[in-house]
Amino acid sequence: MIQKLPPRRFVIGDNAYVCSETLLTPFSGREKNDPSKDAFNFYLSQLRIRIEQTFGLMTGRWRILRQPLQMKLRNAAKVFMCITRLYNFCINEGNISMNNSEDSEREFMHSNVDESGIVQSFVLRNILMQELVNCRLERPALE
Hints:
Elements: E1 11-12, E2 23-24, H1 35-61, H2 73-92, E3 112-113, E4 119-120, H3 123-134
Parallel strand pairs: 1-2
Antiparallel strand pairs: 3-4
């Protein structure tokens, strides 16, 4: 299903997954020592944290999300879209207070096949990393 995402859409995963044109993962190993790749990892992590917080807030507000959804996956996606739209409506109407930052998304396609035969794509990740460099965004210094 992830591989069939439309253009300019992608999923964010952790190092347990293989980076592809529709699944962004952090750099690992020696690669993450490069400052620009470290910055990419930091901002990707911040985005994942924000998504997890959003799920936590919505789960607290709508009890249907506190248990496994007993429905087909395509219907679960529709229910989730309704919940997110209702949640945004509540925010806009002042019923929920939120401080959200908007993150831009980009999609570029290029693939590689590793020794396991899994298709990998690093171009999107590299382009986003370069955007961070162009914007002079780095991992914030520890205080």
